[in-house]
Amino acid sequence: MKLKEILSEDLIKVPLAGREKKQIIEEMVEMLATARRINNKAEVLKAILDREALMSTGVGDGVAIPHGKAEAAPEIVAALGIAKAPVDFDAIDDKPVNLVWLLVGPPHQTGPHLKALSRISRLVHKRDFRERLATASTAADAFGAISREEELVHEA
Fold first, then answer.
1. HEC letters along the chain
2. 111-128 core/surface letters (b: 16 or more CB in 10 A; e: else)
3. 56, β-bridge pairs
4. Could you tell me which CATH number the domain at 3-155 has?
5. Rounded-to-10 torsion of CA 66, 71, 72, 76
6. Do residues 11 and 78 lie in contact, with contact meaning Cβ atoms separated by under 8 Å?
7. Which of 38, 52, 92, 99 has the smallest count of CB within 10 Å of its CB?
8. What is the pLDDT of residue 153?
9. What predicted TM-score, i.e. pTM, was given to this entire model?
10. For position 78, what pLDDT does the model report?
11. What is the pLDDT of residue 1?
12. Which of 79, 3, 1 lies closest to 35 in space, CA to CA?
């Protein structure tokens, strides 16, 4: 699974308006609702916040990957938000984040959900890629960087 199959330019926000974890998650769920990729904003928000309450999805190195499963998501979809100023996300390395990937899918698609999480994790593991994304000035720039990186990873 390539991220460009579940992510599009209209699901990338540069910069995020929110300054706190919950605001950012709400903002990103709103993007999914506006793009009509989910059919119940409240249900998706609850699923993601419930998951976040179990353990922070701030994975370190300036990255967070809030995610959840909800019937209101007919298929797996991702959104990306890039913060202008780093945000406290209770990350495992105690450092703020500026790249927030949000992933949501239906409860019955556990395998594809895990594959998408793994794909995001592999890509953001690379410092140069994180830096390119963090400095993207538009959604198109960010989507282009993701597409180029996925081609490199696919060929390797």
1. CCHHHCCCHHHEECCCCCCCHHHHHHHHHHHHHHCCCCCCHHHHHHHHHHHHHHCCCEEECCEECCEEECCCCCCCEEEEEEEEEEECCCCCCCCCEEEEEEEEECCCCHHHHHHHHHHHHHHHCCHHHHHHHHCCCCHHHHHHHHHHHHHHHHHC
2. eebeebbebbeebbeeee
3. none
4. 3.40.930.10
5. 50
6. yes
7. 92
8. 74
9. 0.95
10. 98
11. 82
12. 79
Q: Which residues pair with 99 in a beta bridge?
A: 63, 82
| Token pair for 119 | 């794909």
Give 18's contacts (C-beta < 8 A, 6+ positions apart): 24, 26, 27, 81, 83, 87
Output the six-digit token pair for 48: 């993601």
